Amino acid sequence: MKGRNKKTSDSGKESAGVAAAGLVEDGMIIGLGTGSTTAYAISEVGKRINEEELDVQAVVTSYQSEMLAIDAGIPLTSLSEHPELDLDIDGADQVDFELNAIKGGGAAHTKEKVVACSSKQFIAVIDESKLSDKLNHSVPVEVLPYSRNLVLQNMQNMGAEPEIRQAVHKDGPVITDNGNLIIDADFDVIENPNNLASELSAIPGIVEHGIFTGMIDEIYMGKKDGTFDKFK
Ligand SMILES: O=C[C@H](O)[C@H](O)[C@H](O)COP(=O)(O)O
Questions:
Q1: Whole-number mean pLDDT of the chain?
Q2: What's the pTM?
Q3: Which of 112, 142, 161, 199 is flagged as catalytic?
Q4: Closest listed residue to residue 95, CA positions, set 63, 124, 59
Q5: Once rounded to an integer, what is the mean pLDDT over residues 70-92?
Q6: Answer CATH for 3-132+213-231 from 3.40.50.1360, 3.40.50.300, 3.30.70.141, 3.30.2290.10
Q7: ipTM attached to this prediction
Q8: What ligand 1 atom has the least distance to the C-alpha of 108?
Q9: 17, 33, 36, 124: which sits with the fewest CB atoms below 10 Å from its CB?
Q10: Is 17 in the pocket of ligand 1 (CB under 6 A)?
């Protein structure tokens, strides 16, 4: 299987994901993010639950993490049953040294943000390629299909180059797990992520944008040699 539904063979992603899975303790209710790095964490959490007979339940953030968690034998629960989580493990597309992040490369950032904000501890798992002095990755934005032209126009007025994300193995746009569209907006270097986040949140029709500020507690950054650094 190709693409984001499958773990890629990347030792940096693997070491970060496996290390973060080591934070899971017996009795915890955890959040499971989406993406190729989190996939390693999900697999390791499942292995630990099985081998150490841990009593752990998870809330997922996408169909991808749901399918991976079921495959790994992780019991699932929901935010309705457990509105407060002990630990959330999730990837990121780019992170700066102040722990601001851009997420949503897999179109899952809306649920990922809800789960991150519902968790006492949010650990981001990345490889070295994701760390940047300043955020300059395009910002994924989930929008109601009805509002797409209004949102595109607002983003152009903000100086961005927005594009509706196109599907790869389907004709037409990506449809998110929530039935919406994704606009990827290139704002060049983002000098003030908090300001941009507020401006985007104010546009009618935007369900959620992929800028995460003040949410990450610690980064686990895997390296090519199979080791990892952590910083907060
Ligand atoms: O929507 C997807 C998520 O925000 C992912 O966590 C993010 O795109 C990073 O994914 P990956 O670990 O595959 O690079």
A1: 95
A2: 0.95
A3: 112
A4: 124
A5: 98
A6: 3.40.50.1360
A7: 0.99
A8: 1
A9: 36
A10: no
